[in-house]
Amino acid sequence: MLKLTRLSAWLMLFGAIGLEICGLSLLKVFEGNGTLGKALLIVLMNLSYFLMSLTLRQIAVGVAYATWEIVGGIGVLLVSFVFFDPILSTQQYFGIVIGFAGIICIILGEEHSEASEDIASNHTADKIQNAPKEATKSASGGAK
Fold this sequence. Notes:
The protein has 144 residues and is mainly α. It contains five helices and no strands. It is flat, with a radius of gyration of 21 Å.
């Protein structure tokens, strides 16, 4: 099983966000050719979800998902400003700023302790090591 550091988990999360931004932006680029745009979206979003699943080994699901959604949304918005000229109201700009401030608060509020990370990794290792024993017990009807 792949052992991730916190840094590599965050890098994978931002990779997942980048793939999401590319997929959604390419939908607009290939607007005339809906099939190609949708195919690219499916491939890139599947890769994004795969990387997201790997990040959950080191980052809490709530923090990872909130980061993925808000940073991804802001990224799509930035791409649309550069390439597609969106028209937004003052309220919409204000909402974007609030969302960005919120994700900073969520990330900074995540607690990390070495003990909890060690417990989680040891628990996972114990489950993997005991899986063959449990399968043998259930196959033999629980006999010792």
